[in-house]
Amino acid sequence: MTKILAGGVGKTEVTNTIKQLGIEGLEVTASSDMDAAMKLRVAQADYYLGTCHTGAGASLGVLVGLMGSAVCHTFGRSVPTEEQITALLDEGKKVFGFSMDQIDTIAPLMARAIAARG
C-alpha cells in the first residue's frame, strides 16, 4: 500500500479528489506538514502533496526545511505533464507542492503516476 499525505490549505480537497479516483493500492490522508515530515522520515508515508494559494511557498516550507530540497518539488501554478511527474518521481522526489486552483488537475495526475510505480 502506497501512502500519500495531503497537506496545506487544500488538504481536504486533495484527499477527497484522490479517494474519488478509487485507485487500488493508494491510501491518502489529510495531514499537517510537521506530522507529514516526521512520517516521511521514518517511512510511515511515501509521498506528500501540499497545497497553498501560489503552490510555491507555504505548500512546502516545513517539508523543504526538514526533508531537504533534493526530495521536494513545487509546480507553482503550472500544470505538469504525466511525463514530467514520472521524471520527478524517478529522480526520487517525494514531496510536491501546487496551487489550490490546480487540485482537480494535478492531484489525479500525481495519484495515477504514483500508483503506476507500484
In total, the number of strands is 5
Task: Output the number of helix runs.
Answer: 5
**What is the global morphology?**
globular
Share of residues in helices: 40-55%
- Report the oligomer: single chain
Q: Structural class from helices and strands?
A: alpha/beta
CATH architecture: 3-Layer(aba) Sandwich
**Biggest sheet statistics:** 5 strands, parallel
Number of domains: 1
N/C terminus separation:
9 Å
Low-confidence stretches: none
Q: What is the fold-level CATH name, i.e. the topology?
A: Ribose 5-phosphate Isomerase B, Chain: A
Strand content: 15-25%
- The level 1 CATH classification is Alpha Beta
Q: Provide the CATH superfamily.
A: Sugar-phosphate isomerase, RpiB/LacA/LacB
Q: What is the string of SSEs from the N terminus onward?
A: EHEHEHEHEH
Structure description:
- With 118 residues, the chain is α/β, with parallel strands linked by helices.
- It has a single domain (2-116), classed as 3-Layer(aba) Sandwich (Ribose 5-phosphate Isomerase B, Chain: A), CATH 3.40.1400.10.
- It is built from 5 helices and 5 strands.
- It has helices spanning 11-21, 33-41, 61-67, 82-90, 103-116; strands spanning 2-8, 26-30, 47-52, 72-76, 95-99.
- It has a 5-stranded parallel sheet with strand order 2-1-3-5-4, sandwiched between helices.
- Strand 4 (72-76), helix 4 (82-90) and strand 5 form a beta-alpha-beta unit.
- The mean pLDDT is 94.
